[in-house]
From TrEMBL:
TM spans (from-to): 28-48, 68-86, 107-127
GO molecular function: electron transfer activity; metal ion binding
Pathway(s) annotated for this protein in UniProt: Carbohydrate metabolism; tricarboxylic acid cycle
Organism: Pseudomonas fluvialis
Keyword Iron annotated: yes
Name this protein carries in UniProt: Succinate dehydrogenase cytochrome b556 subunit
Cofactor: heme
Self-association state and partner proteins as the record states: Part of an enzyme complex containing four subunits: a flavoprotein, an iron-sulfur protein, plus two membrane-anchoring proteins, SdhC and SdhD. The complex can form homotrimers.
Keywords assigned by UniProt, alphabetized: Cell inner membrane, Cell membrane, Electron transport, Heme, Iron, Membrane, Metal-binding, Transmembrane, Transmembrane helix, Transport, Tricarboxylic acid cycle
Length: 128
């Protein structure tokens, strides 16, 4: 009888114990930031629609955007945008054939995280 499963495969996959490479983390964060932007776009379009509907709607949106929660959400959306932008530029650079090796991928991932962190801190200072 032939075995259907390779015996070298792990029996129990505990996701908390699996160590992913840095390239996997940057890829997962790129996808997560895209989802955050997609959902955030709906919220921002609603606010835009409300602000353009009437003067009262504009005043309500303006008042809402001055609250600390709204500033935090704005910072979060801008952070997702900046990370997604930097990671997307990395993908475009890799599409040109630069940094496709394992070492280049790791270096690119480290650069994405470093550049994004600096930009996110700067936009946090700007929002607050």
């Amino acid at each position: 009888m032939k075995k259907a499963v390779n015996s070298q495969r792990p029996v129990n996959l505990d996701l908390r114990t699996i160590k992913l490479p840095i390239t996997a983390y940057t890829s997962i964060l790129h996808r997560v930031s895209g989802v955050i932007l997609f959902v955030g776009l709906a919220v921002l379009l609603y606010a835009l629609d409300k602000s353009l509907a009437s003067e009262e709607g504009f005043a309500q949106v303006k008042e809402c955007l001055t609250s600390p929660l709204a500033k935090f959400v704005t910072w979060g959306l801008l952070s997702a945008l900046l990370y997604h932008l930097v990671a997307g530029v990395r993908h475009l650079i890799m599409d040109m054939g630069i940094g496709e090796s394992l070492e280049g991928g790791k270096l690119g991932s480290k650069l994405v995280i470093a550049i994004s962190a600096v930009l996110i801190v700067l936009v946090g200072v700007w929002v607050w």
